[in-house]
Amino acid sequence: MQVLFKILRQKPNSAPQFQSYPLEVQPGNTILECLNRIKWEQDGGLAFRKNCRNTICGSCSMRINGRSALACKQNVAQELEMLPQSHQQDLPTITITPLGNLPVIKDLVVDMSRFWDNLEKVDPYVSTQGRKIPEKEFLQTPQERSRLDQTGNCIMCGACYSECNAITVNPEFVGPHALAKAQRMVADSRDTEIETRLDHYSQGTQGVWGCTRCYFCNAVCPMEVAPMDQISRLKQQILDRKDAQSSRAIRHRKVLIDLVKQGGWIDERKFGVFVVGNYFRDLQGLLSIAPLGLRMIASGKFPLSFEASQGTAVVRSLIESVQHDE
Ligand code: FES
Predict the structure, then answer these.
(1) Which domain holds residue 184?
(2) What is d(CA 233, CA 230) in angstroms, rounded to the nearest whole number?
């Protein structure tokens, strides 16, 4: 079958532009096989990364039809099937662009420096400090090792980083790849720095609290690492150890749950006062939200009373049963 490959080409210091390459392919051909043929048969200047051709090295990550994926994992039939009806043209077309959130070096090759630098920020090495050097290696039981299975599957392809909405708006955020690795460290029975790590991952919006919970990282991860789920596990461990005074981010989660348990939904009068004003302890915080409160009162949007939801008991029992299962 004939397929048109529309590839975004870019050279340093020039505007990107699409170039089209028609190719005779089999439905089972991988996108990487197609790119290889385009390079070998039509355009030797086309730049893209590849190595293992077998979903192991993570090199061939790129956006295929607008979604970050591994070119050696996706095949032509899968990609054409996923196209919405409105995009189906006479000549089936597959669009390929470089990963997002990273600067382009050439064509589909991106500069991954920031990606690796951010990984380094979570200290991605098992710490055995303070232990006596063992005569043999540090052993783990099969159960202890199994806790690392899912996060251990990460091949650092960058698909999650490319789709991360938090990184797009907050360059401080380390990214889902780094936090999935952080959870892998915390789950490791050999690590001796868990408390320090959780403190570190809880700072500002560079760690877990920077995640916007859009779930795009889970949706695109080719290895089912589910980075968003790993971030949630880190958050839960932090919340289990810290009280509401620790930081505004932690207070935000705790107050929200407490208020919903009390009234079935959020009592907005208390929410700002408790979270930003830290239960009247933070006068500066209270003053900072006073103008907003006054504007809300003036425009009739400040609730003067609070009616508990009729379903409060059901909501409370749902929250308690989730908390019980954690
Ligand atoms: Fe190694 Fe695709 S070439 S993952």
Answers:
(1) 112-241
(2) 5
